[in-house]
Amino acid sequence: MPTLAGSRPFSSRAVVLALLLLALAGCGARHALPAPSAEEVGAAAALIAQAPPLAPSTRPASEDAALLSRATARVTSAAEPLCDAYLGGACGFEVVLDGSAAGTGRLSAEASGRGRVTISAGMLRVLDTEEEVAAVIAHEFGHHLAGHLGRGLARGSVAGTAAGAVIGAIVPFGGLAGWAIGQGAAELGAGAARLAYSKEEEREADYLAVYLIARAGYDPDRAARIWVRLAPPGAGATAGFLDAHPSDAERLAAWWRSTGEARSSAGLVPRLASGP
Question: Where is the Peptidase M48 domain (predicted)?
């Protein structure tokens, strides 16, 4: 059984699938996202159930800022080949720390227009390692790379925002809107437009994040602990039909599968079935 230290189940069938996906990626074909088995999802759920309660770190704010700066630099550099493939040019990503009173009290990371990612001080305080910080950044970059903000606007999921006005539209990391530390505000900002990513879009962002993490030289297994640590208490193994996001167990199991593919495909750019 896997442990919180980062070991994970990975069957021979999963390795075969990873090699197949690698072959498809190498020849430029598009492919479906890795689909974990029920056994893998169950193992992920068991791992999540063992996790201790989430608690903020005691690091000084200066160390948090340094963690964010290092992770941003490494993930941004790793993203350049994907930006060229998906966006047709340089990334132009910007990562901003929200150190306001509201930002200190909530757990959020938000993708918004013009390649911006805003991470709240509250979120940063509950991330244990640089790998976990990098995972948050990489996930939000994944949304930008895959064009999810624009898609959300096109299907009318942004309330009160003019069509095409991506600036100011925000999405909370992994469906964590509403989480707060102490008496912190759970709102994402007065008047801010909200986007609702689909389950498939969250899976795509996770998938691209694994590649970014691996390309940045981080250990994807250590980064995967974010799905263990941030899972809400009592979270189910699978998402229901009406749930906006995949369950944390589903995401963790898919992350494990994607990790095998990313490690076997150095130098290749992952291609999404829905991508450019």
Answer: 114-254
Which range has the worst mean pLDDT, 96-105, 173-182, 188-197, 228-237?
173-182
Q: Structure tokens of 267?
A: 């130098």
Q: Which of 119, 170, 163 is nearest to 149 (CA)?
A: 170
Q: What is the pTM of this model?
A: 0.75
Question: What's the pLDDT at 10?
Answer: 44
Rounded to whole angstroms, how far apart are CA atoms 89 and 192? 29
CB atoms within 10 A of CB 200: 15
Q: What is the DSSP letter of 175?
A: G
Taking residue 99's Cβ as centre, other Cβ atoms within 10 Å add up to 15
Structure confidence at residue 268 as a pLDDT band (50, 70, 90): confident
169 φ, ψ to 5°? -80, 135
Phi and psi at 112, nearest 5°, equal -140, 180
Q: Which of 30, 33, 39, 43 is nearest to 4 (CA)?
A: 43
